[in-house]
């Protein structure tokens, strides 16, 4: 069995790591390069950096940040935010990122996934999906959870796979930052119906939540932010716990 991955996520705004609840009420969590280095040393399997206010000026600043991260960490990391064309992908990969995450731009123009995977390979393309459970239906949202669409989480995830995406990063907006556990029913449906890895995001509050998303949600990886940033869960302790629960992890 492939090892389950633990992935700290660093949302970056104005050069600092921030974290909110249900996509709002942001608070500062530290220097993104220093945090990334610490997580790398603690045994994280990968990192995700998201430029959550990817204005034109922010992109230049963020590219410099990516270069600093690449020089500091020794594990793979994914970069997202404001990626709308191949030139953006090329710039970030050249700065040292291993993968890119596309979200709103891919929903608006799905051909972007085909373009990235044909030029750089499926392994580079992570399709991030922000979805909310509204009246029994999982709906995809644009622009950091601000704009609802008519697209279903499951239909869009299937299309992303068909277009060549290497992974799906699904964030439940209902669960984001509230620390009550991941959206395991939706994650299990995704994992069981797709052939590419599914990364769970939104809802981690304790070590048991990670166990549950691997066992009940059939997730391939679990992503979290505040529980790592604010020291509520230590990655080495989490991995030892998961190993004790019979889950394959890299120690």
Number of strands: 12
| Structural class determined from secondary elements | alpha/beta
Q: Count of DSSP helices?
A: 10
Helicity, as a percent range:
25-40%
In terms of DSSP E residues, the strand content is 25-35%
Q: Mind describing the biggest β-sheet?
A: 8 strands, parallel, barrel
For the biggest β-sheet, the strand order reads 1-4-5-6-7-10-11-12
Element-by-element helix/strand order:
EEEHEHEHEHHEEEHEHEHEHH
Mean pLDDT: 92
Multimeric status of the protein: single chain
User: What would you report as the Rg, rounded to the nearest angstrom?
Assistant: 16 Å
Low-confidence stretches: none
Termini, distance in Å?
15 Å
Q: What gross morphology would you assign?
A: globular
Can you tag this structure with a few keywords?
251 residues, eight-stranded parallel β-barrel, alpha/beta, single chain
Short description:
The chain is built from ten helices and twelve strands. The chain has 251 residues and is α/β, with parallel strands linked by helices.
